[in-house]
Each structure stands twice: as structure tokens, then as C-alpha cells.
Design goal:
Blueprint (H helix, E strand, L loop, with lengths): L6 H4 L9 E4 L5 E5 L10 H7 L4 E5 L17 H13 L5 E6 L1 H12 L4 E7 L6 H12 L3 H4 L3 H5 L4 E2 L2 H9 L9 H11 E3 L5 E3 L3 H10 L5 H6 L7 E6 L7 H10 L4 E5 L6 H4 L1 H15 L1
Parallel strand pairs: 2-3, 2-4, 4-5, 5-9, 9-10
Antiparallel strand pairs: 1-3, 6-8, 7-8
Length: 295
């Protein structure tokens, strides 16, 4: 298909450069795409490990862009266009890209549509549901019931967004079962990644819950294109999943094996959908092994 141009480019309007965080220097270059609700800083332990041998560009997705509004996004497809624009801006030819969760789906769609732009893909616990789940969610969404039945929306909408001190947040999160596999050091890295200092003191969330909910509401329903395109993907692909993931389920793993038998799929024990935050060293080792095979 070639490069996908944004509406702003087609109209001749200049678009601001997509923001990113840089880890390491030199070459080779590696691009990282974060998940929904997880700014790049959350992945600091993983990205720092990868930066020992690569220059890692952690691209900010739309919810982290200054002045971005959720209403402008009706599906996740434009997020894949953003990735291609980012590669152009950084003058990265054939890219090796790592994506977690939402980032994995964004990457997969971009690679299916524009395989010539990529050298290899690492998909960490992507939000890739089976066709049956996609059809079911499409019905729920079509009936206007998505907000009621999505398992994470209500908690996200009630989430506290301002804090006096980070220790307060650490002690509150340390008690939550969702973080049971995170060490204290990794949990603190996560907390520092999701927050930023406020001008008047204290801290606030970097990632807007409004944007996070909107991402939930606009995803999954158009994803049959991923399953249609997967058998034709002729790129090296590594899937990494948390052995206890509630997102990239075993039934989806089996379907991936059938659709893309050349793909490598690895599970990390004692981990969940948050595997790159829980087990950054193990995940980094798997990625580095994969990258050596690409060289």
C-alpha cells in the first residue's frame, strides 16, 4: 500500500512532530509503542536494558500528545498511520518495532498494511482477540452497551488523578492484587512513569482517564482485518505473553500458531498482561535473542 498519509498532510497542513522518549544512543535503532494507560516511562527498566545495545525511540501515542482530544479518534486504525509517520520523521527505513498491548495491535496492523517498512516485530501481550470475541464485542458496541459491559471502564472513570506524594501512591498500589508480580523497584518505576509533578506541588497522572476510556471504546470491533492479514505476513515476528494473561489468551495463541506458523511465541511464568513491567529482564532477554537472529 505504501506510506499512508494523514489528513493534515493531504491538505498540505504542517503537522507537529510526534513526541518520543529516547533511551541510548547510536545504532541500531529500535522503536517502542506503549500500551493504553501506560506512558513510556513505565517501561523504564525494560527500555534501559534494551538501550545497552540499541538506540530506543519510545514513541508517544495520541493520548500523550499535547492538546490531543479523544473525540478525534473513532478506531485504532489512525494510530498505525501515526507509527508510519513517526518512522518517516525519524528517517528510519526498515524498522524493528516492539509494541505492548494496544501498541502491539497498532504495530501489527501497520506491518500487515505496509510490510516493506519493517524488519521485524515484537508483540508483547497484544490486545488480539479471537474472531468470536470480536464479533461479540461488535454486537455489544452496536447496541450501545460497551460502556456498561467493558470490564475496566468503570474503574478507570473513578481513578484518582492527583496525589500529594508518590509514597502515598506506592503504598496504596502495593496492596493491589494486579501488581502482585511487580517488585518494589519495578512498581516505583511504574508509578514514576504514570505521574508528573504539578506546578503547585504534588503529582498528577500523565495519561488522561478520559483518553484511556476512549481507547477502550474504540478498539477491537474492526480487528477482523488483523486475522485476515496475518497468514500473509512475511516478517519475523516474536510474540511474548504473560503466562497468566487475561488479554492475549491461549485460544488466541492457538489461532496465531495456525495463521502464522513461522512466528515465535514465548510465555513468561509468574506474569500477567503487565509482563514487560513485571519481568523486564526476562522480556529483554527474549527480545535481545530475537534481535540477534535478525542481524
Amino acid at each position: 500500500m505504501g506510506n499512508i498519509r494523514s489528513a493534515g498532510e493531504i491538505a498540505g497542513a504542517a503537522l507537529p512532530e510526534i513526541p518520543s522518549d529516547r533511551y541510548g544512543e547510536g545504532t541500531p535503532e529500535l522503536v517502542f509503542l506503549h500500551g493504553n494507560g501506560y506512558p513510556p516511562g513505565c517501561y523504564g527498566p525494560l527500555l534501559s536494558r534494551l538501550a545497552k545495545d540499541h538506540c530506543v525511540w519510545a514513541m508517544h501515542q495520541r493520548p500523550l500528545w499535547p492538546g490531543s482530544t479523544a473525540e478525534t479518534l473513532t478506531s485504532w486504525k489512525p494510530l498505525s498511520e501515526d507509527l508510519l509517520r513517526f518512522l518517516d520523521e525519524r528517517r528510519i527505513g526498515k524498522a524493528t518495532v516492539v509494541g505492548h498491548s494496544l501498541g502491539g495491535v497498532v504495530l501489527l496492523r501497520a506491518a500487515i498494511q505496509n510490510p516493506e517498512r519493517f524488519n521485524g516485530l515484537v508483540l508483547i501481550d497484544p490486545v488480539l482477540f479471537t474472531p468470536m470475541a470480536i464479533r461479540s464485542w461488535s454486537v455489544v458496541r452496536g447496541l450501545g452497551l460497551a460502556r456498561r459491559f467493558h470490564p475496566w471502564i468503570h474503574a478507570t472513570e473513578r481513578r484518582r488523578v492527583e496525589f500529594d506524594e508518590l509514597d502515598q501512591l506506592f503504598h496504596a498500589y502495593r496492596r493491589r492484587p494486579v501488581f502482585k508480580y511487580m517488585s518494589d523497584a519495578h512498581l516505583r518505576a511504574y508509578i514514576e512513569g504514570i505521574t508528573r509533578p504539578k506546578a503547585g506541588g504534588g503529582y498528577s497522572l500523565r495519561y488522561s482517564p478520559t483518553w484511556e476510556v476512549h481507547i477502550y471504546l474504540t478498539g477491537i470491533w474492526p480487528d477482523m482485518d488483523l486475522w485476515r492479514g496475518l497468514p500473509n505476513l512475511r516478517l519475523p515476528v516474536l510474540f511474548i505473553r504473560g503466562a497468566e494473561s487475561d488479554t492475549f489468551l491461549e485460544v488466541a495463541v492457538r489461532r496465531v500458531r495456525g495463521s502464522l506458523p513461522a512466528a515465535t511465541i514465548r510465555a513468561v511464568d509468574s506474569s500477567t498482561h503487565l509482563v514487560p513491567l513485571e519481568r523486564p529482564d526476562e522480556v529483554a532477554d527474549l527480545i535481545q535473542e530475537f534481535l540477534k537472529e535478525l542481524a
